[in-house]
Write a structure and sequence with these properties.
Blueprint: H1 2-12, H2 21-52, E1 55-56, E2 64-65, H3 69-75, H4 78-109, H5 116-128, H6 131-141, H7 148-155, H8 170-195, H9 199-207, H10 212-223, H11 225-240, H12 244-249, H13 261-270, H14 275-301
Antiparallel strand pairs: 1-2
Helix pairs in contact: 2-14, 3-14, 4-8, 4-11, 4-13, 5-8, 8-11, 11-14, 13-14
């Protein structure tokens, strides 16, 4: 009796339409090139590096399985942990200043000003230049004798430091260069986010007597959360992977004060030819970036609104 009841109910239930395989095939066709790029140039290299981290390999010899020896070596490697600490300090010096400056510039350009396109282009020029060229230019700017920066400080009666040879100033100088290079690019995202906020919200708040500061904290910042989320994730990932500016300007010195983790990976792999241990360091950097990204996803996930209708 129960079986007949179930069978009758199944016959009365609405049948799902047949799956449109042709449409699915078309969808996979369009997604295919991007999916291939993600697998070939993102996922596959991560898997290869993870596998290599369990081997000893000097490039010209056959890889030999080392198990967890590279990770045990890492636990006692003070220089690598120092490089990670330098990387974290660089991120702290770079990201907050870059984000605040980009937001301030976006707020200024969001107003109706003449020559808006010219300003956007000028702010983007540093980002479009190659880091190698910028490093060479800034090497001259930071030169303690004939550099432009110390010459300007001398006009004000201030004796500038030896920027790139002083361990106390070398890392802040590199952070300043990267802030100068990427602020304009970050500003464009904030500007796009600001222009997507309905102006009616500001008009209604002004009618209710809200001050400009209140409108900024109560309207602008909350509605910029999607943009802030994107900017923070991408900029933090880029900051953790800094290499070229360090390579050109200080080569990790002085006294390893600018030896970021990415630079130590390069030294280990291409100067010491220890690709197994370099892969282990790469997995550490990957893990740190992953944890920071997940923390941002969790932080912004409950504070982000995408629907302004």
């Amino acid at each position: 009796m129960i079986t007949e009841t179930v069978r009758a109910a199944a016959e009365r239930a609405p049948q799902r339409p047949p799956r449109r395989r042709t449409r699915d095939w078309h969808a996979y066709l369009f997604v295919g090139p991007s999916l291939f790029g993600v697998v070939a140039f993102l996922l596959l290299p991560v898997v290869i590096v993870l596998v290599l981290s369990f081997f000893d390999w000097e490039l010209l010899s056959e890889p030999s399985f080392a198990g967890l020896d590279n990770y045990r070596r890492l636990a006692a490697d003070g220089e690598s942990w120092h490089a990670l600490g330098v990387t974290l300090l660089y991120v702290v010096l770079c990201i907050p200043l870059q984000t605040v400056l980009a937001l301030v510039l976006a707020l200024l350009l969001d107003r109706k000003v003449k020559g808006l396109r010219l300003y956007r282009s000028l702010y983007l020029i540093p980002w479009m230049a190659t880091p190698i060229v910028l490093g060479l230019v800034w090497n001259w700017i930071f030169d303690p004798r004939d550099g432009a920066l110390n010459s300007l400080l001398g006009l004000a009666g201030v004796t500038g430091p030896d920027w790139l040879s002083d361990p106390a100033w070398a890392l802040p100088a590199i952070a300043l260069v990267n802030v100068w290079q990427h602020t304009g690019y970050t500003m464009l995202f904030f500007l796009a986010g600001l222009q997507g906020i309905p102006k009616e919200l500001y008009d209604a708040a002004a009618t209710d007597g809200a001050t400009p500061a209140q409108r900024f904290w109560r309207i602008t910042l909350p509605l910029l959360n999607p943009t802030m989320f994107f900017v923070m994730v991408t900029n933090l990932i880029g900051a953790f992977q800094v290499f070229d500016t360090v390579y050109v300007m200080t080569n990790g010195g002085p006294s390893q004060s600018t030896e970021v983790l990415n630079f130590r990976i390069y030294e280990t792999a291409f100067k010491q030819f220890d690709f197994g241990y370099a892969s282990t360091l790469s997995m550490v950097l990957f893990g740190v970036i992953l944890l920071v990204t997940l923390a941002q996803v969790r932080f912004f996930g409950k504070r982000t609104t995408y629907d302004l209708s």
